[in-house]
Design goal:
The structure holds two protein chains of two kinds.
Chain A lengths: L9 H19 L2 H22 L2 H15 L5 H11 L9 H19 L1 H6 L1
Helix pairs in contact in A: 1-2, 3-4, 3-5
Chain B lengths: L2 H14 L6 E8 L5 E9 L5 E9 L10 H13 L7 E5 L9 E5 L7 H4 L9 H16 L18 H16 L3 H12 L8 E3 L8 E3 L4 E4 L6 E3 L2 H8 L18 H10 L7 H27 L6 H5 L4 H22 L1
Helix pairs in contact in B: 4-8, 5-6, 5-9, 6-9, 6-11, 7-9, 9-11
The chains are: A mainly alpha, B alpha+beta.
Chain lengths: ~120, ~350
């Protein structure tokens, strides 16, 4: 025991569970249940990537949103309201800063939910 | 379906078909959508003939915008009368007491709809180009239906500007889904670049690979009419051609099936007005937005706790990929606008 909780940790368990679904269960299942097994593997993969995200990356995005949208209590709602109001339209001062924040946000969200999108460019 | 429901269904169908000798010889759940349940129904008529039907009914929680079975029945009848290839509608039942929810019954059409198979199938509908033309013809026939007469009165008054109506509807959807700034960014761009009003047509509003039944000879039927409404006919072309509905077969711009040129040729051949490429492009970006907000609404059904489902739980995880393409497309369109200015 190297910490309070027993090992293997969540990441390891999700990885081995996913490999077991894909390598052992899927080939043995009838066609009618394969889609469900693939969905289970997909869900485990997303969960793996979600817990692997460095929390400091998430924490770094919020102040940028708060600074732009002016809402510390709900930075993303504030940013959405700013965008909808037209105050970040092309030609405005904030346009490029918002675009850069959204690009970073999109990358992080794809890393967890759709990593193949990033690989495909 | 338990014995009680099955017997109530048999007796209802016998009355609706005016055939006291009608019996149900087979009833099986078909693979189906997240919104409806589809049942394959084989009946023996009093004179001994066997017929194959499909029964469609609602799942417990349905998307707000989808029509009830009675309305879907009216849409199918109107489309059938306009020469659109649909499964012939037979009966509609509003009484939830028969099988637990309202339902409609139509003639069963054989074919393959599964998108991931269809986009890999070179012989689809007699070959990819023939298939794309056939989709164009079907869309032109659907769009020939205009807001007049009482049959489709339940669809309401057509929007004065379908593009702006779309933007308003998506703003409401985003308000319900919670903050999604990248979708908001795409939506703001759409609002700023909306192409203006156009005469309203009937739009299917879910005309895409996966909702079209194919044989290796022809387009057998257009399915899933529950989102139909009055709007800009380019919306259907944009939905079909949107990158997110090509199921990985990106080079085949008409739904991953065939070429855009063949689609448009079929459209004009069947009497449709020549599509405006700029309008279709606007609706292709709009398609990404709409699919994203639908995915969020499906996820909300799982998150509500009322309908726990792995499929519904995974659907919102499509959104980041859609956002990625929305950001790229908005940037490309803004750059083009700047060059043109």
């Amino acid at each position: 025991m190297s910490g309070v909780l027993e090992r293997p940790d969540a990441a390891d368990l999700l990885a081995i569970a996913r490999a077991t679904v894909l390598e052992e269960l899927l080939p043995a299942l009838p066609e009618t249940h394969r889609l469900a097994a693939r969905m289970v593997a997909n869900a485990l993969g997303i969960a793996q990537r979600m817990i692997a995200v460095d929390p400091s990356r998430l924490a770094a995005l919020e102040p940028r949103a708060a600074a732009l949208g002016g809402r510390v209590d709900d930075p993303w709602a504030g940013l959405c309201a700013l965008i909808r109001s037209g105050a970040a339209d092309p030609g405005s001062e904030r346009h490029d800063v918002v675009a850069a924040l959204l690009a970073d946000l999109a990358r992080l969200r794809c890393e967890t939910s759709a990593p193949k999108t990033l690989a495909g460019g | 379906m338990d014995e009680g429901r099955r017997e109530r269904l048999r007796s209802w169908l016998a009355r609706a078909a005016d055939d006291a000798g009608l019996t149900i010889t087979a009833l099986e759940r078909l693979s189906g959508g997240a919104i409806q349940q589809n049942w394959g129904l084989t009946v023996r008529r009093g004179d001994g003939r066997e017929e194959r039907w499909v029964l469609r009914t609602d799942n417990p929680a349905t998307l707000e915008m989808s029509h009830g079975r009675r309305e879907e029945f009216a849409l199918l009848r109107a489309a059938h009368a306009a020469g659109v290839r649909v499964a012939e509608p037979l009966f509609a039942c509003d009484d939830a007491g028969v099988i637990g929810a309202p339902f409609l019954v139509m003639r069963r059409v054989e074919g393959i709809a599964a998108a991931h198979r269809v986009v890999k199938w070179d012989a689809v509908g007699g070959g990819r180009e023939a298939a794309a033309r056939a989709m164009g013809r079907e869309l032109a026939r659907i769009h020939s239906l205009r807001p007049a007469g009482d049959d489709l009165a339940f669809l309401g008054v057509p929007p004065a500007d379908a593009c702006l109506a779309f933007c308003a509807e998506q703003e409401r959807a985003l308000d319900a889904a919670g903050p999604h700034p990248i979708l908001e960014w795409g939506l703001r761009h759409l609002r700023r670049t909306a192409p203006g009003p156009i005469a309203a047509s009937l739009c299917h509003n879910d005309f895409r690979t996966g909702n079209i039944l194919w044989t290796d000879q022809e387009l057998a039927a257009v399915l899933d009419w529950e989102f139909a409404g009055w709007g800009d006919p380019h919306a259907d072309l944009g939905w079909l051609c949107a990158r997110c509905w090509r199921f990985g077969n990106l080079a085949m711009e008409a739904g991953g099936v065939g070429s855009r040129a063949a689609l448009y040729a079929g459209y004009v051949e069947a009497g449709g007005a020549a599509p405006d490429p700029a309008r279709v492009a606007w609706w292709e970006l709009a398609a990404h937005l709409r699919w994203a907000t639908i995915a969020l609404a499906q996820g909300a059904r799982h998150l509500s706790g009322r309908e726990p489902s792995l499929e519904l739980a995974l659907t919102p995880h499509i959104v980041p990929e859609l956002e990625w393409h929305i950001l790229r497309e908005v940037a490309a369109r803004e750059a083009a606008l700047e060059r043109a200015a």
